[in-house]
């Protein structure tokens, strides 16, 4: 019986994973229903949560325009090694998803970004954003405050400021890495804002950038405001390949 139960459980797990579409999609999904949370929902270290393609949001709203929020203002708080899949994040939250360590976001969508869509705080290692998308972000979508790498694949961004930003003025700074593979940005100010003076690197490949810059380079600081140093790829700190800017 025990072996049979494990077999059934494995089939259920396979069925669930089969419904997670991490391909590039350029139409925002319609939620199956809406769940409003009074407090942030935590996904424990190493655990996975499937949002069932429901819209997840906060009530009362924690969105305060561009005022910087914290973990308590997010919808989901992922501990180290956690995975969030098949979730639509609504407009009534300030911080979307916070990852305290490395995390994986599969087919996660943000319908109307307030301050940030997702914030990555790991000190090292790689976090993954597979599929999904975000729209209506006046500033940042993916905020990288920790170290390590954020790897983005098959992601769609529409009418946003920065798809990704390596923190420009965190008290503790890192040499951060970011990668973008087969993304589509439509009306983004820029895909990646990175700190060239701190050892950041980014690569953007096999992607479609419509009315969207590839990268902006900054002089990162630990206090005060960072200053922009360049607005085009330099081939080293920011490298691009097979990037189209029309007809895609």
Please give a handful of descriptors for the protein shown.
single chain; 248 residues; mainly beta; Pectate Lyase C-like; 8-stranded parallel beta barrel; 1 helix; 18 strands; 7% helix; disordered N terminus; lyase; Pectin_lyase_fold/virulence
Would you give an account of this structure?
GO terms for molecular function: pectate lyase activity. One of its GO terms (cellular component) is extracellular region. With 248 residues, the chain is mostly beta strands. The chain has a single domain (38-244), classed as 3 Solenoid (Pectate Lyase C-like), CATH 2.160.20. It has one helix and 18 strands. The chain has an eight-stranded parallel β-barrel. It is globular and about 45 Å long. Mean pLDDT is 93; it is low at 1-18.
